[in-house]
Amino acid sequence: MAFTMTPRQGLVVWVYSLKQLRQLRRYGTIYYTSRRLKYVYLYVDQAMIPTVSEQVKKLHFVRRVEVSHRPELDMNFGERVGQLDKSEPADVRESAGPKILLTSKEILKKDS
């Protein structure tokens, strides 16, 4: 029997109260809970995301549900370390240095 990884994705469940936290356990693995902001980060199998998000939205203590976009991002940064983006204009790259604030008199002298 070979080990196979099932792709999982995060769901951010915004709730009104954290009292019903145990009820969310049946939908996936609770990874993080924010008591101050009142949200729960829940990991669910990627194939089950549409059905689970609809079921969770119907619960009376849920404010809204957001799907994590992390699986859509390219997380391989090793190839791009130290390289500039080719689509970025040259003037933006050159002006990336420190900003110098000018007074109105200096601007008028510069323009004339």
UniProtKB/TrEMBL annotation:
Keywords: Cytoplasm. The keyword Disulfide bond does not apply. GO terms for cellular component: cytoplasm. InterPro entries: DUF2129. It is found in: Cytoplasm. The keyword Cytoplasm applies. Belongs to the UPF0298 family. HAMAP family: UPF0298. This is UPF0298 protein LC20004_06680. It comes from Loigolactobacillus coryniformis subsp. torquens DSM 20004 = KCTC 3535.
